[in-house]
Amino acid sequence: MFAFSLARPANSALAHHIDHLLDAARDTVALRNPALDVAETETSYVVTLNLPGVAKSDIKVEIEGRRVSIDAKQARAERPEGQTALYTERAVTRFSRSFALPKELDQAASNAKLDNGVLTLTLGKRKAEGNGLLSVD
Questions:
Q1: Cα dihedral angle (117, 122, 123, 129), rounded to 10 degrees?
Q2: Is residue 119 part of a domain?
């Protein structure tokens, strides 16, 4: 285990370098590919994934054919005025996941719900149009 003191001289070159490193880390964006669960019913797929600390307004779900893309951004909590960071590990986190399902999806029969950091997508399966006759001209 390593131990170090957070106390430092106010005008030292080392303090300047530490402040520079902390400022660079503050602007870092971490990219995560969250694990997900997919279940199937007769009429839909149910996709569940954890997005802790993400607001509903920061989630984008796109459906195109069989492909589902989920993008989200976890905003950084602002530090109260007058506080100076001594050590920062938490960065802005961007979540991104894209996958294809076995059947085409019906966007009108689909919905998304965020509850306690868990995103649940209920994705309706597109109903088969059935057999049709093609007229020959």
A1: -170
A2: yes
